[in-house]
Amino acid sequence: MNDAGIGGSAADRERPGRLGWRSFAPTVVAAWAVLVVYAGLIAAALTFVEPGGLLSVLSSSRTWYSVRLSLGAATAASVLGLLCALPAGYALSRYRFRGRGWVETVLELPMVVSPAALGAMLLMALSHPAGQWLQEHAVRFVFTVAGVVLAQFVTVLGMMVRLAQTAFDGVPVELETVARTLGASPARVFRTVTLPLARRGLAAALVLGWAKALGEFGATIMIAGTMAMRTETLPIAVYLRLSAADLPGAAALIVLLVIAGLGALICVRWLSGGRSHA
């Protein structure tokens, strides 16, 4: 009996656990259908892009203000999110403590609650006496750039904590135990063993958090409003152009968001090891 009869083709042996796609053609068609749906949406937006209109939008000072604000706010929100996600994700990965189940449950809140509702809750919190005192004596959030960052931070925090937890789950506890038996303090173990081994997963969490913050709209509009050249992020700029029936202008801005989003996803795939499923 030849090798193919025993273990399949050489290509199949190089991919353990993989089956020939022809055996599951309907599932492959479904997978391609997902690609077609999103590729179709991108293609539909591109049909409204006019070369002259694209240049006009890209050369607009208002557009570049939105780009700078979006990039800056998303970066600030994702960095703050990572700073909170590091200790929270590590605690969820390593310890069993009272209330842990509730913490893991509320991490999914931004996924099941509308961003607009999340922003409304933020606005209500800022309307309470404690929130009013905070705005009067510390940082003003309503209709300000700080409000943009706050809305994005609250939206991405739960996802980033979950991703950080997953990254720490991938670090063997035995390595930390060995380091501690050799005399290293918990802080030193975290800094020299855990963080280096989880760095790719944490970097992916940062990139995904940044990309999600960049595209955040619902909570931002509730807190910061739609003030041109002040709180106008790229998603809000798209909304304002659509409100003015400027489809070519909106399509041009959508292209910028799509390029940024796809770039972030490609970066995450590279951080995950660059594995291709082709």
Please give a structural write-up.
The protein is mostly helical and 278 residues long. It has 2 domains: 1-41, no CATH class; 60-271, MetI-like (MetI-like fold, Orthogonal Bundle), CATH 1.10.3720.10. Helix content is 76%, strand content 0%. α5 (61-94) packs parallel to α10 (145-169) and α14 runs antiparallel to α15. The longest helix has 34 residues, at 61-94. The radius of gyration is 23 Å and the shape is globular. The two termini are 30 Å apart. Mean pLDDT is 89; it is low at 1-14.
Number of strands: 0
| CATH topology label of the largest domain | MetI-like fold
Chain-averaged pLDDT:
89
Number of helices: 15
Shape: globular
Structural class assignment: mainly alpha
> What is the total domain count?
2
| CA(first)-CA(last) distance | 30 Å
- CATH-level-2 architecture of the largest domain: Orthogonal Bundle
Residue fraction in strands? under 5%
Fraction of helical residues? over 70%
Poorly predicted segments: 1-14
CATH class of the largest domain: Mainly Alpha
Q: State the CATH superfamily name of the largest domain.
A: MetI-like
Query: For the CA atoms, what is the radius of gyration?
Result: 23 Å
Biggest sheet overview: none
SSE arrangement, N to C: HHHHHHHHHHHHHHH
